[in-house]
Write a structure and sequence with these properties.
By secondary structure, this protein is an alpha/beta fold. Helix content is about 35%, strand content about 20%. The N and C termini lie close together (about 10 Å). Bound molecules: fructose -6-phosphate. The site of fructose -6-phosphate has 14 residues, from helix 9 and helix 15. Fructose -6-phosphate binds next to helix 9 and helix 15.
Amino acid sequence: MCGIFGYVGPRRAAGPMILDALKRLEYRGYDSWGVAVGIDGHVGLSKRAGRIGDAVVDLPDACIGFGHTRWATHGGVSDVNAHPHLDCTGRFAVIHNGIIENFRTLRSRLESRGHVFRSETDTEVVSHLIEETVGASSEPCTVVEAVRQVFAMLRGLNAVIVLDTVTQQLVAAKNVSPLVVGRGEDAAYIASDAVALVGHAREVHYVEDREIVALGPDGVQFYDSATGAPRAAAFVPLTLREADMSLNGFDHYLIKEIHEQPRVLRRIAENYAEPVHHLAELISEAYGSFLIGCGTSSYAALTGSYLFSRIARRHVNFAVGSEFKYQEHFLTDRSLVIALSQSGETADIIDAVMAAKRAGARVAALVNVPGSTLDRLADFSIHLGAGPEQSVLSTKSYTAKVAILMLTAHVLNGSEHVGREHLWRAVDGVEQALAPASVQRIQEIAAYMADKEHCFVIGRGLSYPTALEAALKIKEISYIHAEGFAGGELKHGVIALVEEGTPCLVFSPIDETRDDILSGAMELRSRGGFIVGISPEPEEVFDIHLPVADVGDASPLVGVIPAQLLGYYLALRRGLDPDKPRNLAKSVTVK
Ligand code: F6R
């Protein structure tokens, strides 16, 4: 959460360039934005609540600066709480991602020593602490040393960057929260996410927790955060391309990414034999495996748990990432934790993985962002290869994770060829679900549902997690209350909410759940429910039938597509921004 972009180089118009780069990071938070540049000992500042939109910055010429897009944690959404935050003298500016857990204590101490705070944020303590540490030392204290000392005072998962307008440096430190440094032709950059560096940097270095990094007129330097001694750091080429980031003619990233799924799945069907075999080996060697994920990734993980039991007759536990640490898992050095995450930065997952590592467990990751924290923590990673997911909603990374887990289950079962065949059928099935005739059907359903308040989604067995994911796709973007259920659970309470015309989505693939799910649909219909059946075959109980291909064990891959499309077209109907739903942000780096 929160997008960060910093620049040091020869371009004098740093401000507008930084603002432009921030637009690419807005999916990390869009409550407010701000840009600061450094000019001869003082800060030029422009910041505002709300989205960047067509904003322009009126800042003096400068060769150094940074910017921030905020997802508010401490302090409401306002101009004054937008980052950057200055110290009392105006020499330093600070941007931050994370939560400083002990900021209240730090703030009251600073206030008692005469510092005046302008904002309600936790971040502002850093500006004043840097001011004190640089100014109060009897020996001259460099800003690098001040950042090292101040960062050690902060509790929590944080990334902090300080702009020193006197030395013309950006100095950064981090704990878990991601930062990546980039080097270009004659300039240096720092960002929360490598996507912001595309078109700027040629090579990148993912900052380690034990590093302090300084960008200034002398280039990029690294220091050890424990001792302050200089240290070396390796850079790797930045492989993302400008073409991966563009809309490619689509109106929104969400619809573009939904349409990219056949390509992503095809790539997995063609290329993933080796990593899938390795994951299957790890599972068979382990004495207890756990699939974990948050949000959409948790539904992919739950789907995996069903797939392993159904295909490989193997129990692979499932836990929601944020709940994992509250259960006694008896993790040992023979356990395997398989962490699923698009971003590789979700704080609850990182937390769970670190706890698993402390217990000696092995960690495998299914992750979309190479170089992310999870990718670096894991003993073994499978990169999803889905390309950048720029819409806040997860789509293509979800189907990629499910496809990989399905293949792994088949490898464990010794039926890899069947898994691959089902996946190829799913590639065709997803293409059919995206064809103009299917899309038109979805648009009609969106028209029917647009003014409804509630919607229920049911599935059984393998389709139960699909129902949960479908409901999430609908509610997070259209703000219609959508609830996913295991079909059998309806009559234990939820059916009380169904009334005349309530839209009910029913997943009915051709598998062992079919008879039971159709009787659930009948029960809904008898209470007035309007039944949208997502199924290979029409059924009498459906008011509308959305045909999907029969693809065997890969049914979650084709089932979810109509729900993704429905979410998108409902958002359009309701005049909402499909790429930036309210209150959400991509990459949830706070707990
Ligand atoms: C929903 C969505 C979120 C994420 C969740 C985990 O569309 O995007 O529920 O799935 O925040 O994110 P990752 O997969 O990056 O760990």
